[in-house]
Amino acid sequence: MIYFLYDILLWIALIGIIPYHLYRSASRGRRAAFAERFGSIPREKVAALGGKEIIWVHAVSVGETMAAKPLLKALRQRFPEKKIVLSNVTETGRSIGEKLPEIDLCIYLPFDYRFAVRRVLQALRPSLVVIVETEIWPNFLRTASELGIPTVMVNGRISDRSLGRYLKLGWFFRPVLANFSALCMQTDEDARRIIAIGADSALVHVSKNLKYDLPSSIISPEQRSLLKKDYRIPASLPVLTAGSTHAGEEEMVLAAYRAILAAGHACLLILVPRHPERAGQVADLLRKEGTSYTLRSELEGRVEDFRSGEVLLVDRVGELMRLYSLSDLVFVGGSLVPTGGHNVLEPASLGVPVVFGPHMSNFREIATMILASGGGIQVQDGEELVSVLNNLVADDTRRAAMGRCGVALMEENRGATDRHMEIIASMVTGSS
C-alpha cells in the first residue's frame, strides 16, 4: 500500500520534475540527460564494461563523492577484476566523479520510477549497490531487493533537521529500510536514530566517518610555490580561500577581506561558490564594490600575476582541494547561513587552518572534533569573522600550529574505510 501511494505521488510530481530539470540544466549550461534519468543507458556504455561483475556506488553530489574517494580506492584495490559504476544526482557531482581514476562508468541515478530503476538495474546487474550517506529511494531499494541485489548504506547519518521528519514517517520508512542488506552509520547516535526510524538493529553497524580517511599532508613550500604559479599567484602573497560559499556569505567574506587589507596585510582572496552557476551573481557583487577580479575560466588569458586586493572567482568544479592546498587560511561556507555547513576536514587534511560559522548541523561531530583539536575556529557571525580572519592572517605561527592540529586529527581518526570494507567484502560475490 505504501508503494502504491508513493507511486501516485511520484507521477503527480512529474508535472514539476520535468520543467525543473529543464530549467536547472539550461541555467547551468548542461544537458538535461533525461534518457539516463529515466533509466536508459546507451548499449555501448554497458558493452564497454565487458560483461564483468559490477559494483554500483551512488553519491548524490560533490560532498558525497568526495567522501567516497577513500572507499572507491579500496574497492578498486580489493576487487581489481570488477567494474565500478558511479551514479550521481547533481551535475556537479557527476563532473567530479568523471575525473576519478577508479570509476569505469558514470551515470545519473534514475528518477525513482519503478520502470526506470528496473531498466537500469537489469541492464547493469550489479553484484552490489553501495549508497553513500542517507539516500533512501523506495522504488530503487525495493527493485534491487526483488532482483536479489544486496544494497549497503555507507557513511550513513541522520541530521538533527531530518530526524523529526523521518520519525513522523516511520510507518513508511520501516519497510523501505528493510530492503537494505546493511546500514553502516557514522556514529553511535546515527545508529540509534536509524534504528528508531525503523531499521533492523541486526543490520546496523557503526563504521565511523569516511571523511577522516581523506589523505592528509602538509605540502612543502616549494610545492606550494609551484601550485601558486599555475594560478598566477606570487609565491610570497598570502592566500585566503572562501570555499563552498552560499548566497549571503560572500558579503561577509568581502567585509573581512577589506578589513585585512585595511590593516595593512597583503592578501589574495579566492572565492569558490558552492554552486558555480552563482559566479555571475558574485561577480556582480564584486563589480558593485569596485573589487578587481578574474574568473577561473578566464585565468589562462591573464598575463600578469595577481596582486594583493584582487579576487580569483572560481566558476568551475573539481579544483577546491588544489586551491585549499595552496592557501594559508580557509573559510568553509554554508555555515554562516542556515545551510548545515560543509566538510571542514578537506582543508584540515592539507594542514590548512579552517574557520567556519555556527550552522554546522550536517557536520556536528566533525565541527566538535576539529574545535577540540585546535585545528579550526568557529565564529558566530560576520562581525566575528572579520576579527578572526584578520588576526589569523597576521599570525603565521598560530596558523601553522592549527594546520598541524588538523592533520593530527585526521591521523588519529582513520580506519572507517577498513570498517566499511569488512561489511562490503562479505557481500561481494567472489571476494577473497
What would you give as the CATH superfamily of the largest domain?
Answer: Glycogen Phosphorylase B
What is the global morphology?
Answer: globular
Mean pLDDT: 94
**Main sheet strand line-up:** 3-2-1-4-5-6-7
Please give the number of β-strands: 14
Kindly give the count of domains. Answer: 2
Q: Any idea of the CATH class of the largest domain?
A: Alpha Beta
The CATH topology of the largest domain comes to Rossmann fold
Radius of gyration: 22 Å
Q: How much β-strand is present in the residues?
A: 5-15%
* Span between termini: 41 Å
Labels describing this entry:
2 domains, 7-stranded parallel beta sheet, 14% strand, Rossmann fold, single chain, alpha/beta, 432 residues
Account of the 3D structure:
Helix 4 packs parallel to helix 5, helix 4 crosses helix 19 and helix 12 packs across helix 17. This protein folds into 2 domains: 187 residues, Rossmann fold; 192 residues, Glycogen Phosphorylase B (Rossmann fold, 3-Layer(aba) Sandwich). The protein contains 19 helices and 14 strands. The radius of gyration is 22 Å and the shape is globular. The strands form 2 sheets. Strands 3-2-1-4-5-6-7 form a 7-stranded parallel β-sheet, sandwiched between helices. It has a 7-stranded parallel β-sheet with strand order 10-11-9-8-12-13-14.
